[in-house]
Amino acid sequence: MRILTNSPEETIAAAEKLGAMLGPGDFIAYKGGLGAGKTTFTRGIAIGMGLGDSVTSPTFALVNEYHGEKMSLYHFDMYRISSEEDLESTGFYDYPFEDNVAAVEWSENIENFLPENTIYITLNPVGDCGREIIIEDGGRFASAWN
Q: What pLDDT, on a 0 to 100 scale, did the predictor assign at position 23?
């Protein structure tokens, strides 16, 4: 599925639709370079999940946690991760992914360790503020944009 947005607000709105449809165990792997809009998209997911909009980049923390009554969102940055040992040192394997949602920036660095049912989201800048958003989910969320 391919979505085009023209502003950060439209990108957040698209992600909000997706966030409202996510459930326990959903795992999102972002693809896209620096400034592609991964954190902005995650902000929309958090809003859609009912977790508010106070999402910030996990670049220096490695993971930011946003807790809700029913589910939490774990937002990882794997930019500096280059091996399984690095991944292990983040505490990645200790998170209860089966009951919550995870969103991973720089997922290509841990590609071999992603769950089988991972939802891949590619963000490509288009012009100054637009984004091309490609969601690879086996069609699960297509109805949200029809």
A: 95
